[in-house]
Design a protein that fits this description.
Layout: E1 5-9, H1 16-26, E2 36-40, H2 46-53, E3 58-62, H3 79-84, E4 87-92, H4 95-101, H5 105-117, E5 121-126, H6 130-134, H7 138-149, H8 155-158, E6 162-165, H9 179-196, H10 199-204, E7 206-210, H11 218-222, E8 229-232, H12 239-250
Parallel strand pairs: 1-2, 1-8, 2-3, 3-4, 4-5, 5-6, 6-7, 7-8
Helix pairs in contact: 1-2, 7-9
Amino acid sequence: MRKPIIAGNWKMNNGIEETSHFFNSIKEKSIPPGLEVVVCPPFTSLYIADKLSDGSSIKLGAQDVYWEISGAFTGEISPIMLRELGCKFVIIGHSERRGYFGETDEIVNKKILASINNGLIPIICVGENLTQRENGETDSFIKHQVEKALKDLEENSVEKVVIAYEPLWAIGTGKTADAEEANRVIGLIRNTVKQIYSEKTAETVRVLYGGSVKPENIKQFMSQPEIDGVLVGGASLKPEVFWEIIEASKQLL
Protein backbone atom coordinates (compact mmCIF):
# COMPACT_ATOMS: atom_id res chain seq x y z
CA MET A 1 0.00 0.00 0.00
CA ARG A 2 1.29 3.47 -0.93
CA LYS A 3 2.01 5.73 2.04
CA PRO A 4 0.09 9.03 1.73
CA ILE A 5 2.03 12.31 1.76
CA ILE A 6 0.93 15.72 3.00
CA ALA A 7 3.51 18.19 1.65
CA GLY A 8 3.59 21.93 2.24
CA ASN A 9 5.17 24.28 -0.29
CA TRP A 10 5.81 27.64 1.39
CA LYS A 11 7.04 29.30 -1.81
CA MET A 12 8.69 32.70 -1.06
CA ASN A 13 7.14 32.99 2.40
CA ASN A 14 8.12 32.43 6.05
CA GLY A 15 11.51 33.75 7.06
CA ILE A 16 13.41 32.54 10.11
CA GLU A 17 11.02 33.99 12.69
CA GLU A 18 7.89 32.56 11.04
CA THR A 19 9.64 29.23 10.47
CA SER A 20 10.60 29.02 14.14
CA HIS A 21 7.02 29.71 15.17
CA PHE A 22 5.71 27.09 12.74
CA PHE A 23 7.96 24.26 13.92
CA ASN A 24 7.67 25.13 17.58
CA SER A 25 3.89 24.96 17.20
CA ILE A 26 3.74 21.66 15.35
CA LYS A 27 6.78 19.54 16.21
CA GLU A 28 5.32 17.98 19.37
CA LYS A 29 2.17 16.82 17.62
CA SER A 30 1.83 13.15 16.80
CA ILE A 31 1.96 12.11 13.15
CA PRO A 32 0.73 8.54 12.58
CA PRO A 33 3.14 6.03 11.02
CA GLY A 34 0.78 5.64 8.06
CA LEU A 35 1.21 9.27 6.97
CA GLU A 36 4.27 11.14 5.68
CA VAL A 37 4.45 14.90 6.31
CA VAL A 38 6.88 17.07 4.33
CA VAL A 39 7.48 20.81 4.67
CA CYS A 40 9.34 22.77 1.97
CA PRO A 41 10.53 26.17 3.29
CA PRO A 42 12.57 28.71 1.28
CA PHE A 43 16.33 28.10 1.19
CA THR A 44 17.11 30.66 3.91
CA SER A 45 14.79 28.92 6.38
CA LEU A 46 16.01 25.36 5.82
CA TYR A 47 18.75 25.44 8.46
CA ILE A 48 16.47 26.52 11.31
CA ALA A 49 13.74 24.19 10.05
CA ASP A 50 16.16 21.27 10.21
CA LYS A 51 17.19 22.15 13.77
CA LEU A 52 13.64 22.62 15.04
CA SER A 53 12.23 19.54 13.32
CA ASP A 54 14.92 17.29 14.81
CA GLY A 55 13.26 14.47 16.71
CA SER A 56 9.91 14.98 15.02
CA SER A 57 8.36 12.98 12.18
CA ILE A 58 8.27 16.00 9.87
CA LYS A 59 10.56 15.69 6.85
CA LEU A 60 12.14 18.59 5.00
CA GLY A 61 12.10 19.38 1.32
CA ALA A 62 13.47 22.20 -0.81
CA GLN A 63 11.60 24.10 -3.52
CA ASP A 64 14.23 23.80 -6.24
CA VAL A 65 17.71 22.45 -6.99
CA TYR A 66 20.44 22.77 -9.60
CA TRP A 67 21.67 19.76 -11.54
CA GLU A 68 25.42 20.19 -10.90
CA ILE A 69 27.18 19.21 -7.68
CA SER A 70 29.38 22.31 -7.48
CA GLY A 71 30.96 24.94 -9.68
CA ALA A 72 30.64 28.48 -11.03
CA PHE A 73 26.84 28.66 -10.93
CA THR A 74 26.15 31.86 -9.02
CA GLY A 75 22.95 31.78 -7.01
CA GLU A 76 22.29 28.05 -7.45
CA ILE A 77 22.00 25.29 -4.81
CA SER A 78 23.24 21.75 -5.41
CA PRO A 79 21.58 18.52 -4.25
CA ILE A 80 24.54 17.84 -1.95
CA MET A 81 24.00 21.19 -0.22
CA LEU A 82 20.33 20.39 0.27
CA ARG A 83 21.15 17.05 1.85
CA GLU A 84 23.57 18.79 4.23
CA LEU A 85 20.65 20.99 5.31
CA GLY A 86 18.59 17.92 6.18
CA CYS A 87 16.43 17.76 3.05
CA LYS A 88 14.94 14.44 2.00
CA PHE A 89 12.68 15.81 -0.76
CA VAL A 90 12.85 18.52 -3.41
CA ILE A 91 10.08 20.04 -5.54
CA ILE A 92 11.01 20.06 -9.22
CA GLY A 93 9.19 21.56 -12.19
CA HIS A 94 6.60 23.59 -10.31
CA SER A 95 4.53 25.66 -12.72
CA GLU A 96 5.93 28.85 -11.22
CA ARG A 97 9.45 27.68 -12.04
CA ARG A 98 8.39 26.72 -15.54
CA GLY A 99 6.37 29.87 -16.12
CA TYR A 100 8.33 32.65 -14.40
CA PHE A 101 11.83 31.28 -14.87
CA GLY A 102 11.57 29.47 -18.19
CA GLU A 103 12.29 25.94 -16.99
CA THR A 104 11.84 23.50 -19.85
CA ASP A 105 11.05 19.79 -19.73
CA GLU A 106 14.73 19.14 -20.40
CA ILE A 107 15.84 21.26 -17.41
CA VAL A 108 13.27 19.55 -15.21
CA ASN A 109 14.59 16.14 -16.29
CA LYS A 110 18.21 17.11 -15.53
CA LYS A 111 17.22 18.26 -12.04
CA ILE A 112 15.31 15.02 -11.42
CA LEU A 113 18.26 12.88 -12.45
CA ALA A 114 20.69 14.89 -10.29
CA SER A 115 18.37 14.67 -7.29
CA ILE A 116 17.91 10.91 -7.52
CA ASN A 117 21.65 10.35 -8.07
CA ASN A 118 22.38 12.32 -4.90
CA GLY A 119 19.85 10.85 -2.51
CA LEU A 120 16.93 13.28 -2.79
CA ILE A 121 13.35 12.30 -3.58
CA PRO A 122 11.95 14.57 -6.30
CA ILE A 123 8.36 15.78 -6.13
CA ILE A 124 7.78 16.26 -9.86
CA CYS A 125 5.07 18.77 -10.74
CA VAL A 126 2.96 18.49 -13.89
CA GLY A 127 -0.20 20.31 -14.90
CA GLU A 128 -2.09 22.00 -17.70
CA ASN A 129 -3.22 25.61 -18.01
CA LEU A 130 -6.80 26.77 -18.48
CA THR A 131 -6.52 27.13 -22.27
CA GLN A 132 -5.20 23.59 -22.63
CA ARG A 133 -8.01 22.26 -20.46
CA GLU A 134 -10.70 24.13 -22.39
CA ASN A 135 -9.21 22.88 -25.68
CA GLY A 136 -9.34 19.26 -24.53
CA GLU A 137 -5.55 18.95 -24.42
CA THR A 138 -5.20 17.96 -20.75
CA ASP A 139 -4.51 14.26 -21.26
CA SER A 140 -1.98 14.61 -24.08
CA PHE A 141 -0.15 17.45 -22.34
CA ILE A 142 0.11 15.67 -18.99
CA LYS A 143 1.26 12.46 -20.65
CA HIS A 144 3.94 14.40 -22.53
CA GLN A 145 5.18 16.10 -19.34
CA VAL A 146 5.43 12.80 -17.47
CA GLU A 147 7.31 11.11 -20.33
CA LYS A 148 9.80 13.99 -20.57
CA ALA A 149 10.27 14.15 -16.79
CA LEU A 150 11.08 10.45 -16.48
CA LYS A 151 13.43 10.28 -19.50
CA ASP A 152 16.53 8.15 -18.81
CA LEU A 153 15.40 7.15 -15.30
CA GLU A 154 16.00 3.53 -14.29
CA GLU A 155 12.89 1.67 -13.18
CA ASN A 156 14.11 1.19 -9.61
CA SER A 157 14.63 4.96 -9.39
CA VAL A 158 11.16 5.76 -10.71
CA GLU A 159 9.61 3.77 -7.87
CA LYS A 160 11.05 6.34 -5.44
CA VAL A 161 9.80 9.52 -7.10
CA VAL A 162 6.65 11.43 -6.23
CA ILE A 163 4.54 13.11 -8.91
CA ALA A 164 2.22 16.02 -8.16
CA TYR A 165 -0.65 16.92 -10.48
CA GLU A 166 -1.15 20.67 -10.17
CA PRO A 167 -3.51 22.18 -12.74
CA LEU A 168 -2.17 25.69 -13.29
CA TRP A 169 -5.61 27.26 -13.22
CA ALA A 170 -6.12 25.98 -9.66
CA ILE A 171 -2.87 27.24 -8.10
CA GLY A 172 -3.31 30.27 -5.86
CA THR A 173 -6.66 31.11 -7.46
CA GLY A 174 -9.03 29.64 -4.90
CA LYS A 175 -10.34 27.33 -7.62
CA THR A 176 -9.92 23.59 -7.26
CA ALA A 177 -10.26 20.74 -9.68
CA ASP A 178 -13.24 18.47 -9.14
CA ALA A 179 -12.01 15.59 -6.96
CA GLU A 180 -13.26 12.95 -9.39
CA GLU A 181 -11.58 14.70 -12.33
CA ALA A 182 -8.33 15.07 -10.38
CA ASN A 183 -8.53 11.35 -9.62
CA ARG A 184 -9.03 10.60 -13.33
CA VAL A 185 -5.98 12.65 -14.39
CA ILE A 186 -3.86 11.08 -11.66
CA GLY A 187 -4.99 7.69 -12.95
CA LEU A 188 -3.75 8.81 -16.38
CA ILE A 189 -0.38 9.73 -14.85
CA ARG A 190 -0.16 6.30 -13.25
CA ASN A 191 -1.09 4.61 -16.52
CA THR A 192 1.62 6.60 -18.32
CA VAL A 193 4.18 5.28 -15.84
CA LYS A 194 2.84 1.78 -16.48
CA GLN A 195 3.24 2.18 -20.23
CA ILE A 196 6.84 3.36 -19.86
CA TYR A 197 7.89 0.90 -17.17
CA SER A 198 5.58 -1.68 -15.61
CA GLU A 199 2.39 -2.14 -13.63
CA LYS A 200 4.44 -2.79 -10.47
CA THR A 201 6.25 0.53 -10.81
CA ALA A 202 3.02 2.38 -11.60
CA GLU A 203 1.38 0.96 -8.49
CA THR A 204 4.40 1.97 -6.37
CA VAL A 205 4.72 5.60 -7.50
CA ARG A 206 2.90 8.07 -5.27
CA VAL A 207 0.90 10.75 -7.08
CA LEU A 208 -0.39 13.84 -5.27
CA TYR A 209 -2.92 16.54 -6.05
CA GLY A 210 -2.07 20.22 -5.62
CA GLY A 211 -4.08 23.34 -6.28
CA SER A 212 -5.84 25.45 -3.62
CA VAL A 213 -5.95 22.55 -1.15
CA LYS A 214 -7.38 23.55 2.24
CA PRO A 215 -9.03 21.94 5.30
CA GLU A 216 -12.48 22.34 3.74
CA ASN A 217 -11.71 20.17 0.69
CA ILE A 218 -8.93 17.83 1.81
CA LYS A 219 -11.24 14.87 2.47
CA GLN A 220 -12.67 15.07 -1.05
CA PHE A 221 -9.22 14.52 -2.52
CA MET A 222 -7.80 12.09 0.02
CA SER A 223 -10.79 9.78 -0.35
CA GLN A 224 -10.09 9.22 -4.06
CA PRO A 225 -8.42 5.86 -4.83
CA GLU A 226 -5.69 7.16 -7.15
CA ILE A 227 -4.71 10.20 -5.05
CA ASP A 228 -1.88 9.49 -2.61
CA GLY A 229 -1.78 12.85 -0.87
CA VAL A 230 -1.61 16.56 -1.52
CA LEU A 231 0.88 19.34 -2.21
CA VAL A 232 -0.43 22.30 -0.23
CA GLY A 233 0.44 25.93 -0.96
CA GLY A 234 -0.95 28.86 1.03
CA ALA A 235 -2.76 26.67 3.55
CA SER A 236 0.60 25.22 4.67
CA LEU A 237 1.99 28.55 5.92
CA LYS A 238 0.11 28.64 9.23
CA PRO A 239 0.74 25.67 11.56
CA GLU A 240 -2.86 25.50 12.83
CA VAL A 241 -4.29 25.36 9.29
CA PHE A 242 -1.71 22.85 8.07
CA TRP A 243 -2.43 20.70 11.11
CA GLU A 244 -6.14 20.74 10.28
CA ILE A 245 -5.26 19.23 6.91
CA ILE A 246 -3.10 16.57 8.56
CA GLU A 247 -5.82 15.74 11.10
CA ALA A 248 -8.45 15.39 8.39
CA SER A 249 -6.13 13.13 6.40
CA LYS A 250 -5.43 10.93 9.44
CA GLN A 251 -9.12 10.10 9.65
CA LEU A 252 -9.02 8.52 6.19
CA LEU A 253 -6.07 6.20 6.80
